[in-house]
Amino acid sequence: MAWTSGTASNYQDLLARLRSFVTTEMTPAEQRWQELRWSISQSEQELILKGPGLAASDEIYVGIQTFSDKSNSTYNWSLQGYIGYQPANDFATQPGAIQGSNPKLALWNTAIPYWIVANGRRIILVAKITTNYEALYLGLIRPYATPGQYPYPLLVGGSLTGKRGLSYSLLSPDHRHFTDPGEEYETNNTACMLRSASGQWLSFQNVMYAEESRQFLKQQVWPTCYDYLHTLREAPDGTYPLTPLVLTAQDGAGRQNLFGELDGCFQVSGFGNAAENLIHAGGVDHLVVQNVYRTSVRDYWALRLE
């Protein structure tokens, strides 16, 4: 089984369930992730994992750390990616870690319905908080390059930018999924960070500023970076086409460079559609997910349940 769903009792129980699923429960067994660190300190948790890839030959390093502020009802996860693991290093100083602010996941301290989809290359989670949907992506994308050209296309994606203290109730470009990332203010890091072939962490951003205006910035996610998606609807036969989500970069001359696709994530029209619907395509069900609290036609994506 490469996916599971259920209801966790709170943000910490959700991490414990993710840990159990990817390290001991998912099949095939050769795709399970190795637990490198599982610690609980002052009621918070820290999990560092190593993925084997699909041929049990890769080494993919990711981390999740819980943090909370009861005074403003903030209960979140901090997300990281690495190029290795040193037992003596803390969460933020593992080899190759994102420096400065890193992507976050906004949760809460009560019941959380969830969906987890994983294989040896990546872990994807969708969590429902009231009527909002939060999401993360930890692991490799599907690169448009050979392993020799781009050996470690690691993505760390969440639903909050790197600022701490932000709540699941936040209405802002800071609070968007990695599939259509945003930023309230111009900073170096966003909720969608990709490690380039040169080893640099690149931030992707489709939306900026409070009015959620779309800008042609250097790195974006296609096709959600374009406004025309609000005109799309289902096909004439009633089916919903699924479009790959592609990480792109624009050079100084306006030319687009392509890094690759998010694995198992697709853009889908929200016309006549709704979160938690299932779309059957290619013999597999796909879960429809809305971008946090947004419900316009352009604000949906689909997660392959396989």
Number of strands: 22
> Rounded to an integer, what's the Rg over CA atoms?
18 Å
Strand order of the largest sheet: 1-7-8-9-11-13-14
How does the overall form come out from the CA principal axes? Answer: globular
Helicity level: under 10%
Helix/strand class: mainly beta
State the major sheet.
7 strands, antiparallel
Note the run of SSEs as H and E: EHEEEEEEEEEEEEEEEEEEEEE
SSE layout and pairing:
Elements: E1 3-8, H1 11-25, E2 34-41, E3 44-51, E4 60-69, E5 74-82, E6 104-107, E7 112-118, E8 122-129, E9 132-140, E10 142-143, E11 154-157, E12 182-183, E13 192-195, E14 201-203, E15 207-208, E16 213-214, E17 219-222, E18 243-250, E19 256-267, E20 278-281, E21 284-290, E22 300-304
Parallel strand pairs: 12-15
Antiparallel strand pairs: 1-7, 2-3, 3-4, 4-5, 5-6, 7-8, 8-9, 9-11, 10-19, 11-13, 13-14, 15-16, 17-18, 18-19, 19-22, 20-21, 21-22
Give structural attributes.
306 residues, mainly beta, 7-stranded antiparallel sheet, 1 helix, 42% strand
Task: Explain what you see.
This protein has 306 residues and is mostly beta strands. The protein starts with a strand and ends with a strand. A hairpin with a 2-residue loop joins strand 2 and strand 3. Strands 1-7-8-9-11-13-14 form a seven-stranded antiparallel beta sheet, with helices on one face. Strands 10, 17, 18, 19, 20, 21 and 22 form a seven-stranded antiparallel beta sheet that branches. It has a five-stranded antiparallel beta sheet with strand order 2-3-4-5-6, with helices on one face. It is globular, with a radius of gyration of 18 Å. The model has no long low-confidence stretch (mean pLDDT 92). It has one helix and 22 strands. The relative contact order is 0.13.
